[in-house]
Write a structure and sequence with these properties.
- The complex is a heterodimer of chains A (111) and B (891).
- Chain A contains four helices and three strands; from the N terminus they run H-E-H-H-E-E-H.
- By secondary structure, chain A is an alpha+beta fold.
- Chain A has one domain: Arc Repressor Mutant, subunit A (Orthogonal Bundle), CATH 1.10.10.
- Chain B contains 30 helices and 24 strands.
- Chain B has four domains: 73 residues, no CATH class; 192 residues, no CATH class; 313 residues, no CATH class; 189 residues, no CATH class.
- In chain B, strand 1 and strand 2 form a beta hairpin.
- The chains are: A alpha+beta (111), B alpha+beta (891).
Chain lengths: 111, 891
């Protein structure tokens, strides 16, 4: 099934949180934004997006409300909660730490 | 998950739990919205609507899977899974009602037996006194004598000294069971009550609903406080709930007493086994007790006492302090207290009421019901195994579509939880119905309200809940064990019909049957041993004749007779009775053997025997009138009976039993030797054969007799040897007694056989209970064996058909099935014998003259087991024999 195999586990969560930190969006919009920012490199399938959203909602990091979308139809909009903001900060700093370390290793020249 | 997260997720969880359809709808809507946006975009890129839709579906992936993954994100709550499993489990159980009913019935029997026995243990041993406060700190006090086993009662002065000196105890109180005639209107009847210390009601925390308890000091003096508190039942039944009862006079043993209080409903006093109907202060002791005024006599041990320890004081601490006080009393009053100690007993070991009598039985019962429970579990496990075999298909499908094994295990455990919870509910209900069943097993006696309740309280409930969860685990894990090596492909393929090889898979079921047979064989052996023992007790001669002798008594003390009048009355009554047709002889005795009464006991010294210094042989004796030995049929080995001339003016004489002779005089002729009784020397004039005195199970012990006239009691028991039937002799006796004094009533008249039966009733209870449960276990084991055998036959129909086609006759097949069944039985019996050999000695106290390893008993248990096994196999065997080979081979 469409699990993001080459995406580091948890990265998707962080990306979603980051996207929602800017503004509340519905599922479709989030998927478009994901494609935009990651320039399709990460290859997040839409199929894995919704389970991730529901999981985050249940963790209390994001919250959903039903609102009318641009074309005046009912759509489910997700927004970041305070808890989610904290989680994002935590994951971001964690990510920075790990990625710095990894890129340090990758950049090592053979002696 | 921390609290903050719960704050967000709980409403979501609750919502998806209570409105699953709505949540599902929203999910679908969300995905549809996404899909439509995608289609729109695709169309905008120039695809045809058809292609756009197809491509959008492909980009999103399988909708159903996504929905399921989202649902998974919602669920994962234990509660939800549980409810789901419960619902599913119930559906499964309803689908096979026969199986479910059988399983629940098995568990109800197993758990019900446990709950009933625990409720008895609770209601009789641990919390025996309804309405009494802080029973967990209540202990019984009983006297001990150095160098002797068994407990004695306490004397009143010793009790007062203990009460004064003890610092670790909160309350000391006395409650001594006694009986009384109670005349209301023109008819008299007997009632059971307690002689209590004045602080009784305060100490146990029971407040009379009308009137009051006793005032301090009501237990001092002689006949100083003729007051009583009556029980709620007595008030309701005899006084018709008279609201003006307080202050009224009522004759107890013909002495007018003022009723000062009515005890609350549901309070039955402090005596295990009987419900008390009245309470009188100790100062009235002489009205109710034989043997004169005893409150100042340190040598008269007659009271049953209790203490409540202060909180956080242990029994051993209290015992130390009380032993120290007893030791001080021993030095201060050597004449009466030499070698005497005081023991502190937990209520369930109380030596002086039915707790002590029933304890060994209940101990055994706890083990027995555990066995029954295990057998029931094995049975249900077996049923579930069969079913899990039938459900292999379902299980494999569930595994194949992605259920985890843990999830399957949860499902199985939920199903067994449903079974055991229903079984527990049924069991508790059964226990509730059985809570008064013990009383039914004991022989009734007139004037005594038997009261042996089971108590289903929080502790019994939690026990049962604990048992329920253990059962759930055992029963649920047995089939889970089977699914452990469930392979995915196998069952999905066509089911292959079973051949002999099915045995390989059936090892677990066979193992369970062997286990059941083993346990029920142990129970069978236990029941047979107890039965054998009861038979031995019932057929052992007590050393006196039981059939043609009746006993009763005339309450002369109660009727106000003083000693001289009582003597005259006794002699005249014996003369009149002896003249009656059909009466061979009649005699009085202070105490009739094997009754509830306790024999007086005295330290003795013996001519020509030097007792070790700290050992003071205290021996029990009986005061008997002339003709006693002839009346009871106790053989005199040498010498003579007492005669009327052995009276208060004649030199003291005694008749000793055979054990005394062999212990103190060896082979020498004891006639004419002397025995010191209560400090005075008596000459031995006869030797009586040994007989039973207090219990049918006792071994021969030293005992002697003195003439009634030389150690007088005013209200002895009357024994009559007659060839008349009981009602006839009762009528004749009443006539004679009334001819002497029209106002006299009689105590209950029973044959000595009845007296013996009453004394062996604990054995009867044990035998009945163990037999019932043993029968239950046998039945369960039989059902288990039947199940396994019929399943085996059903599984190997093909093999049987083949055998028949090859020339095996029905007889061969029947033999085949039965021998397979007997193999299992033999295995079970083998293990069972080993277990029984190890365990039956625990019956020790309940067995009389039967070795716990009695080969005859084991043999008969084996015979019964074999018969059960054969009958369990007959039906499957018959089925096997009726297999039509042509049809089987064609199919």
């Amino acid at each position: 099934m469409s699990k993001p195999s080459d995406l580091v586990q948890g990265t998707l969560d962080m990306l979603i949180l980051k996207i929602l930190a800017l503004q509340p969006l519905n599922g479709w919009a989030i998927s478009q934004r994901l494609k935009q920012i990651s320039s399709d490199v990460l290859g997040v399938s839409d199929g894995s997006l919704y389970p991730a959203l529901h999981k985050l909602e249940h963790r209390g990091w994001i919250r959903a409300h039903w609102k009318s979308s641009e074309n005046n139809r009912r759509a489910k909009f997700y927004s970041l909660t305070g808890l989610g903001r904290k989680q994002l900060e935590k994951e971001t700093s964690n990510w920075n730490r790990v990625s710095a370390a990894i890129s340090g290793i990758v950049k090592l020249k053979e002696a | 998950m921390d609290i903050e997260q719960w704050f967000y997720s709980l409403p979501l969880r609750l919502r998806s739990f209570f409105h699953p359809h709505q949540v599902d709808q929203e999910l679908k809507e969300e995905l549809r919205e996404h899909l439509e946006q995608q289609i729109k975009e695709n169309v905008a890129r120039g695809m045809s609507p058809e292609d756009a839709r197809y491509s959008a579906l492909r980009t999103l992936g399988g909708i159903t899977q996504i929905e399921q993954q989202c649902r998974d994100a919602h669920s994962g709550s234990v509660l939800e899974d549980l409810v789901h499993d419960l619902r599913y489990g119930f559906r499964q159980l309803c689908r096979s009602p026969g199986f479910s009913a059988l399983a629940i019935l098995c568990l109800t029997l197993g758990i019900g037996a446990n709950a009933a026995v625990f409720s008895w243990v609770e209601g009789i041993l641990f919390r025996p006194y309804p309405a009494v406060a802080h029973q967990e700190r209540l202990f019984a006090l009983a006297g001990t004598a150095r160098g002797e086993s068994g407990e004695t009662e306490l004397s009143w002065p010793d009790f007062l000294d203990l009460q004064r000196s003890c610092t670790l105890c909160e309350e000391f109180f006395v409650s001594k069971i006694t009986g009384s005639t109670l005349s209301i209107g023109d008819h008299a009847e007997t009632a059971t009550g307690s002689i209590v210390s004045a602080n009784y009601f305060d100490a146990i925390g029971v407040r009379p609903i009308l009137g009051r308890g006793f005032e301090p000091g009501a237990d001092a003096g002689n006949d100083s406080h003729p007051v009583v508190v009556i029980s709620y039942q007595l008030w309701r039944n005899r006084f018709k709930g008279d609201p003006e009862i307080i202050g009224k006079m009522q004759r107890f043993n013909n002495v007018p007493h003022t009723i000062i209080g009515v005890a609350p409903e549901g309070f039955y006093g402090t005596f295990v086994g009987w419900a008390m109907q009245f309470w009188a202060p100790a100062s009235m002791e002489e009205t109710f007790e034989s043997g004169g005024y005893k409150l100042e006599d340190r040598d008269a041990r007659w009271i049953e006492a209790y203490v409540r320890l202060k909180p956080s004081v242990s029994r051993s601490q209290a015992q130390q302090e009380i032993s120290a006080i007893a030791a001080r009393l021993e030095t201060r009053y050597p004449a009466t207290n030499r070698g005497r100690g005081v023991g502190v007993w937990p209520l369930w070991q109380t030596p002086f009421n039915n707790a002590g009598t029933l304890l060994p039985t209940l101990e055994v019962m706890v083990a027995v019901v555990a066995f029954v429970l295990l057998i029931a579990c094995a049975n249900v496990g077996n049923l579930l195994l069969v079913r899990s075999f039938a459900r292999r298909h379902e299980m494999s499908v569930r595994l194949a579509i992605g259920a985890s094994r843990v999830r399957l295990l949860k499902q199985l455990l939920t199903e067994s939880l449903i079974l055991s919870a229903l079984g527990t509910a049924g069991g508790l209900l059964a226990a509730y119905w059985c809570r008064h069943a013990l009383v039914l097993l004991l022989p009734a006696r007139s004037g005594v309200a038997m009261y042996l309740p089971g108590e289903i309280d929080g502790r019994v409930m939690s026990w049962s809940a604990g048992i329920c969860s253990i059962v759930t685990l055992i029963v649920g894990l047995i089939p889970a064990f089977q699914t452990r090596n469930l392979d995915l492909a196998g069952p999905l393929k066509a089911e292959s019909s079973g051949v002999v090889g099915a045995r390989g898979r059936a090892w677990m079921r066979s193992g369970l049957v062997v286990f059941q047979v083993c346990l029920s064989f142990v129970l069978l052996v236990g029941a047979a041993l107890l039965l054998e023992s009861l038979e031995k007790i019932r057929t052992t001669s007590p050393g006196f004749s039981t059939t043609s002798v009746v006993k009763t008594g005339v309450p002369l003390v109660a009727a106000g007779y003083d000693v001289p009048r009582a003597k005259v009355f006794q002699d005249e009554l014996i003369d009149r009775l002896s003249a009656l047709p059909g009466v061979e002889s009649a005699a009085f005795a202070g105490v009739t053997p094997l009754g509830y009464g306790t024999f007086p006991s005295t330290p003795i010294a013996v001519d020509g025997y030097q007792a070790p210094l700290e050992e003071q042989p205290a021996i029990e004796y009986n005061q008997v009138s002339p003709g006693y030995f002839a009346t009871l049929g106790i053989p005199l080995l040498s010498g003579r009976e007492f005669t009327r001339t052995d009276n208060e003016n004649a030199p003291l004489v005694a008749i000793v039993n055979r054990t005394i002779v062999t212990r103190y005089w060896g082979d020498q002729d004891p006639i004419g030797r002397r025995l010191q009784v209560k400090g005075r020397w008596a000459r031995v004039v006869g030797v009586a054969a040994d007989s039973k005195y207090e219990s049918m199970r006792e071994t021969p012990r030293p005992f002697f007799y003195v003439p009634l006239r030389q150690d007088f009691v005013r209200a002895p028991a009357l024994n009559i040897r007659t060839n008349q039937r009981l009602p006839t002799i009762l009528a004749a006796l009443v006539h004679e007694v009334h001819a002497l004094d029209a106002n006299l009533a009689l105590y209950e008249m029973i044959t000595l056989q009845e007296q013996v039966n009453r004394s062996t009733s604990p054995q009867l209870v044990a035998v009945t209970l163990v037999s019932i449960l043993g029968g239950l276990a046998l039945l369960l084991a039989g059902v288990g064996l039947y199940g396994v055998m019929s399943y085996a036959v059903a599984q190997s129909t093909r093999e049987m058909g083949l055998r028949m086609a090859l020339g095996a006759g029905p007889a061969n097949l029947i033999r085949l099935v039965i021998s397979r069944g007997l193999q299992l039985t033999a295995g079970g019996v083998l293990f069972g014998t080993a277990v029984a050999l190890a365990l039956t000695r625990l019956l020790g106290k309940l067995l009389y003259n039967v070795s716990p390893h009695d080969p005859r008993v084991f043999g008969s248990a084996l015979a019964v087991m074999t018969m059960i096994a054969i009958s369990a196999c007959l039906l499957p065997a018959w089925r096997a024999a009726r297999i039509d080979p042509a049809r089987v081979l064609r199919d």
